[in-house]
Amino acid sequence: MKLLDIGVLSKQSGVSPSTLRYYEEIGLIQSVGRHGLRRQFDAQAATQLALISLGKMAGFSLEDIKGMFARDGTPRLPRAELHLRADALDAQIRGLTRLRDALHHVAGCPAESHMDCPKFKRLMDFAARTNTRHQA
Questions:
Q1: Single pTM value for the model
Q2: In the CATH scheme, what architecture does the domain 4-66 have?
Q3: Residue ranges of the domains in the chain?
């Protein structure tokens, strides 16, 4: 089995050595030994780091991601949670698409003042409602 030095794993994965040490500390990855003072990892660690990155991109917390690995590091992906996360991303995409379209309209709006533009007023109302919901 070929072992990867922490520096090599960091370079290959794009994850800093300090983050690798933190991930090890909280149990997301495991080193399999040391070469002097430098941690050594097996090839599975690179796969785990890719899954961690994917989970973070999808909005999962590190604690959520930790629960997606068995003790031996094998991924256990909870399909129901993944479906829920995908649905939430779909809703977020729809909302961001509406926001993008409204901003494009406002940027090119022929109204003399943005405050005279009905679409801009609706955008401001939406922002006010969204801000109120997030503070509650």
A1: 0.72
A2: Orthogonal Bundle (1.10)
A3: 4-66, 79-135
